[in-house]
Amino acid sequence: MSALRVRGIVKRFGATAALDGVDFEVGERERVVVLGPTGAGKTTLLRTIAGLETPDAGTLELGGADATALAPSARDVALVFQNFSLYPHWSVRGNLEFPLRAPGRALAPAEIQERVQWAAALLRIEKLLDRPAKHLSGGEMQRVALGRALVRRPKLFLMDEPLTNLDAKLREALRVELLRLFQELQVPVVWVTHDQAEALSMGERVVVLAAGRVLQVGTPREVYLSPASPAVARQLGQPPINLLAVERRGDHWCAGDGARLVGVAEVDASRVGDAARARLGIRPEHVAPHGGETPAEVAVVEDAGPHRVLLLHFAGGALHVVVPRDFEAAPGTKLAPRFDPRHALLWREEDSPPREA
Amino acid sequence: MAFLELAALAKTYPDGTRAVKGIDFAAAQGEFVVLLGPSGCGKTTTLRMVAGLELPSAGTIRLAGADVTALPPSARDVGFVFQFYALYPHLTVAENIAFPLSCGGMAKAERVAAVANIARRLGLTGLLQKRPRELSGGDQQRVGLARAIVRRPAIWLMDEPLGTLDADRRLAMCEFLREQQLAARVTTLYVTHDQEEAMRLADRIVVMKDGLIEQVGTPLEVYDEPATLFVAHFVGSPGMNFLEGERVGAGAVTLGVRPESVRVAAGEGPAGHGGTPAAHGGTPALSGEVVLDEYSGIARCLHVRTDAGTLVARVAADAPTRLGARVRLEFDPARVRRFDRASGRRLA
Fold it and tell me: Which among A16, A51, A147, B140 has most CB atoms closer than 10 A?
């Protein structure tokens, strides 16, 4: 049985379809991350699942039962927002108790105390229980916001970019904490983000969303290593994937200026058939700095810590390459990059709208 | 010679908050300096004092050879940039880009030439007569960048200009910005809490904490030779692992090792029962269980629970180790850094 099943969901605002036929499922104990840029429809999707928006078409099932027309309060899902939305003058305890005191939840006071203590211990905010919410740091506020969802023991957690408003360092720490927490609790989660690092590390599966449509659903490794289209490939990876327009010349795929990139026989061409032109994608860590046939020149060297990122002038365009941190290079250094054919990806040209930025 | 020089600069607010507690550093002409630190470290206050938006409580600011400490912002020739993305919706792209020049009273012909020039360099020429809402997100951001850097003041002051951009846009914008700054050679002081952004952009990084400077250095110096435990943790994603080391003389020592310098081997190690990692002459080792496996595409971070705490090891994306595995951790002694635990300062 799945915790959530979304089928053919359409949501229009005026003439715009914010969601344009969205399908995916969340397993009973599964963490699913919905990844997409601003405007992809992520928040509308969460609000629709929570019942705060009514879909124009499609169905929603929660725990195997149709929930499309169910009132938000009857869905038993918890939504955690990026802006925390706590009651600032109330204590942490008051904020945590609030959802348990809602009308219709006849919980005994002892049960309420027990749940608050349990959530506070899990999130390590026990010492903050009597502090007013407005005196908390951003990271503490987000823990409390999550605590308020946890105490309800909902059937499904909906996380709307919960780490977005935090400092980078705090985001990293809280991400690890939440991953451990969800791993331990084994609860179903839909986690929405525009941050690909969050998607790859938090998700057991990733739903890649753009302009209200699902581009691909897969494990983090599937969407990273076998993206279904250049649009998916571009959404994942830091530094981003290299995308080149290529054509088949003899037994090689070549760049526009004729530079030979990879042998036709070495690359999986199942997506392009016998087309003469294609879009080639290769991740920066799958390009070796030497061993290829086409000359390149280093334009920029960035030390990223564990490795170096080189920006090369290559075949009339730019190419990012990741090299070990002790690799000697400076602007002007001449290289001959070699693409690892096992990791080169080919798509049909029509799947590749022109690059936006 | 220093182009920008801060000496004993301090700021105490009327409510008694000591935002900046006396800092010194200098930037050379054309240098890109990043002020890096968590919320509340004093980085933005420092930037605002250089801009003239805050008056220092003590200390001096020298810019291009002149003492500007008490000068109003308009008399300093600084270009202050908040965020790149916020465009005026009712103005065209050309008018948006020209806005800072009109405010500076530049003649129209000169303005048009300057806008045309920056638009050409950022590939915006065809968009100059459009309104922001007609542009893609990426183009809007490039317009924002163009507007931020169209003027050539003595110094660019940037306060988290990439703040609200989607993560996938940040790298491209960083590269654009760095390219333009290198071409224009305008000295730049840039504030961020994001260490990756700092590493990518800076000639030198000034790491701040609690109103004081922890370290000034190139990205690699700060990464490889952190001066304090704070820097070692703050820089790097994730930061250095720390281990309680043996006592040397009277003081306790903390050892720091980067996740990529932790090697993971299957099975129990010779020092598998809590032996201090530094006690071994050759390759110190610890053992434990993998409790978390974070995939990042290019690599994985394994969080390993040992008797000495949880350590993070960065391994290849296709490394065989799985969640729950018992592993042995080894460190290259040459890559282990030693800190005085009490002061947090680096030991030689």
Answer: A147
Class of domain B4-234: alpha beta
Distance (Å) from the alpha carbon of A225 to chain B's nearest alpha carbon = 8
Degrees (nearest 5) of the Cα angle B244, B248, B249?
140
pLDDT tens for each residue of B137-147: 778 888 888 88
Pick from B171, B219, B297: CB nearest A303: B219
Identity of the residue in A37, A200, A302 whose CB atom sits nearest the CB atom of B166: A37
Q: What's this model's pTM, rounded to 2 decimal places?
A: 0.87
Comma-separated ranges of CATH 2.40.50.140 domains in chain B: 241-340
The one-letter amino acid code at B248 reads: V
ipTM of the complex: 0.88
Residue A201 near chain B (CB below 8 Å): yes
* Range(s) within chain B of domains with CATH label 3.40.50.300: 4-234
Contact B138 A322 (CB under 8 A): no
Query: Residue A194 and residue B166: Cβ atoms within 8 Å?
Result: yes
Structure tokens, B269: 């190690």
| B171·A239 Cβ contact <8 A | yes
* CATH code for residues B241-340: 2.40.50.140
